[in-house]
UniProtKB/TrEMBL annotation:
The keyword Transport applies. Residues 1-56 are annotated as: Disordered. Keywords: ATP-binding, Nucleotide-binding, Transport. The keyword Amino-acid biosynthesis does not apply. Residues 47-56 have a biased composition (Gly residues). It comes from Sphaerisporangium corydalis. One of its GO terms (molecular function) is ATP binding. Residues 60-289 form the ABC transporter domain. InterPro entries: AAA+_ATPase, ABC_transporter-like_ATP-bd, ABC_transporter-like_CS, ABC_transpr_LolD-like, MacB-like_ATP-bd, P-loop_NTPase. Pfam families: ABC_tran. This is ABC transporter ATP-binding protein. CDD domains: ABC_MJ0796_LolCDE_FtsE.
Amino acid sequence: MTHPASGGPDLPGEGGGMDGPWTSAGSRHRDGEGGVPGSAGARRGDGGAGGEGEGGAPAFEAVELARSYRLEGVSVDALRGVSLRIDQGEFVAILGPSGSGKSTLMHLLGCLDRPTAGTLRVNGVDVSTLDDTGLAELRNQAVGFVFQSFHLLGRTSALENVALPLVYRGVAKAERRERARRALESVGLAHRLDHRPSQMSGGEQQRVAIARALVGDPRVVLADEPTGNLDSKSGQEVMGILSDLNSERGVAVVLVTHEREVADLARRRIHVRDGRIELDTANEREGGVS
Ligand SMILES: Nc1ncnc2c1ncn2[C@@H]1O[C@H](COP(=O)(O)OP(=O)(O)OP(=O)(O)O)[C@@H](O)[C@H]1O
């Protein structure tokens, strides 16, 4: 579920630069998960651009959101006017056929990209009013990302992977490590702190990625096919963690999935087709969360 024209995040120590989705000065068209800084145990971030939102504003408000790409002189209208509102604490599944615009929408919601038309407010902040640094700050503080392919640093321990977003907030090393340890503990990986990704199963790697998304205490977690690369047992574990995050900590979860069982856990389902919302319904059969 990556954009054809986008690469993975540039990662420190792995041949890339220092910016990524979780940094304070990222760039557009990134694909990767990063998360957001903060404590895995406590609610709310450190305030600022996205920490508290504007007076209890919805997590996302989009009006006629559009995104076109130009590829070799040809324009591709990936999103053609999407209007939606997602409140704090919701659990939403985004569904739709391949190429319908789901990832494009997720990237816009996650401030990894900018719309070519329409307006988007994230926690009450109109993203069009932000320069790239402001957008990166909003992303860093408001949203945690979990992606299908984990995007962990391969030569780096689980603890350091999870602590990484806090580096960009200037959190002191000892505190970074403690918060990362707590985040890993919260996803059942207290016994894997020093393991590198290659020394862990796919399910464990995705749990590390979730811990990294949570370490910043985001109000919203965006997950793009979080179970897509996992066997069914690992997928269930990952979904259990995301469901608990929503029901116990009130974090809004917005996920893209092709899997019915995963979509069944959400309270609301948004169907996207040809860059538009086709259907937006409450999930009558929701059974995963209260
Ligand atoms: N960076 C890009 N440059 C050009 N076209 C793009 C880019 N990213 C996406 N597209 C096109 O935009 C459309 C929507 O893509 P998107 O990745 O959002 O779909 P999707 O619903 O997530 O698909 P899938 O389920 O296969 O991942 C597709 O036609 C795709 O080819």
